[in-house]
Amino acid sequence: MSKVSVITPVYKTEDFLDKSLPSLAAQTLADIELVWIDNGASDECRRLMDKYATNKVKIIRLPENIGYMGAINAGLNAATGDYVGFCDSDDWVEADLFENLYKTAETENADVVLSPYILEKSKTQRIVPLLRDIPPKNAEDLFETQKYGCIWNGLYRRAMIERHHIRLPDGTKSIFRDNLFFVQAALYAGKSAVQPKAGYHYVLRSGSTTQGIDREVRKNAAMETLTELSRIVPADLMQKNERGLSLFLARSLGISVLDKNQAASLAIFEMLPSLAQIYTEIKSYKDPTIGQRLFSISRNPEKKRVKIRLLGFAVSFKYKYRKDSK
Fold first, then answer.
1. Of residues 204, 248, 244, the one with CA closest to residue 222
2. β-sheet bridge partners, residue 125
3. Mean pLDDT in each 10-residue stretch from start to end of the chain (326 residues)?
4. Could you say which of 3.90.550.10, 3.30.450.20, 3.40.50.720, 3.30.2130.10 is the CATH number of the domain covering 4-203?
């Protein structure tokens, strides 16, 4: 059994594997297992996987492409490490990333460890910080720490994953698919921790699945994600962490793109009244009625801003959310 298993699905990313795979093979953590999923990959992808494979690499060859979620699940089924991490095959990681994450996980005895990451775009880099830099005490703190629903900027205890059988729903094609894993992990986690050094390079590139997506596609993807969450996560567990989870979903999914009539019929809005309230507040903040343009005071709890409108003029300012004011 390894200390850490890192899962990397590979499909049509041959132009990026010369950067991604060597960065994984060069990890300073000695006891690491790299699980590379040949998800119906091209011959060139397979050649590069074989080229950079070491004795730390376990290649899972699938007979055909089964989608990102199916590939992640295949990796989870094959992983043997105490902790599980993820790396997309068009991103890359610094050599000490998983050693730093693992040391924090062991020191803090944490089920989940999160870290900042590095956003690469058009030959520029910037660090995307966590929203909180103090150790999360519970699921609500975790939701207030992670900015979006990515899973590749952290580690997850595999025993927790297997105990609660955390997987990604097969067949779901939502661009917000990582949310389905992260929400489950956050809700089931005991102790969590923060590792302050950024070491994951998230590369934004033209043609990626998250770029150039129009409003209708985002709406459908958010709807699908919310529907799946209402199906796979127990209602009482979500309700126990309702406010934090609702704010996280609003932030990560961009909740204002939803259609009001459709959204109101979703089971998750019945489970999470706070999410329905946040949706209404954000819609009023971003898309006011004629009457609201004449005079209104609206909030955007996702951005923690208040906007005052009077006779077509508007001024906004930031406010600080206080937990004891729920």
1. 248
2. 120
3. 94 96 97 97 96 96 93 97 98 98 97 97 92 90 94 98 93 85 96 96 73 77 90 92 93 83 76 89 86 88 86 85 44
4. 3.90.550.10
Residues in CB range of 161: below 8 A, 6 or more apart:
76, 84, 185
pLDDT at 35: 98
Round to whole Å and give the CA distance between 99 and 93.
12
> Given this model, what pLDDT does residue 266 score?
77
Vertex 91, ends 90 and 92: CA angle to 5°? 130
Percent of the chain at pLDDT exceeding 90: 67
Q: What is the side-by-side order of every strand in the sheet holding 200-203?
A: 92-93, 200-203, 117-121, 124-128
User: 13: how many CB neighbours lie within 10 A of its CB?
Assistant: 22
Taken in order 57, 62, 63, 65, the sign of the CA dihedral is negative
Arithmetic mean of pLDDT over the chain: 90
- Spatial neighbors of 43 by CB under 8 A, at least 6 apart, are none
Of residues 306, 283, 182, the one with CA closest to residue 241: 182
Kindly state the percentage of the chain with pLDDT values over 70: 94
pLDDT in the model for residue 325: 38
**DSSP class of residue 257?**
G
The pLDDT score that the predictor gives to residue 154 is: 97
Spell out the domain ranges in the chain.
4-203, 215-325
How far separated are the first and last CA of the chain, in Å rounded?
45
Question: How many residues in total does the chain contain?
Answer: 326
pLDDT on residue 260? 66
Tokens of 126: 């910037």
Helices (H), 157-214: 158-163, 177-188
Residue of 278, 299, 5, 297 whose CA lies nearest to 143: 278
Q: 153 in the Ramachandran plot: left (φ > 0), alpha (ψ -120 to 50) or beta?
A: alpha
Question: Exposed, middle or buried: residue 216 (CB in 10 Å: 0-12, 13-18, 19+)?
Answer: exposed
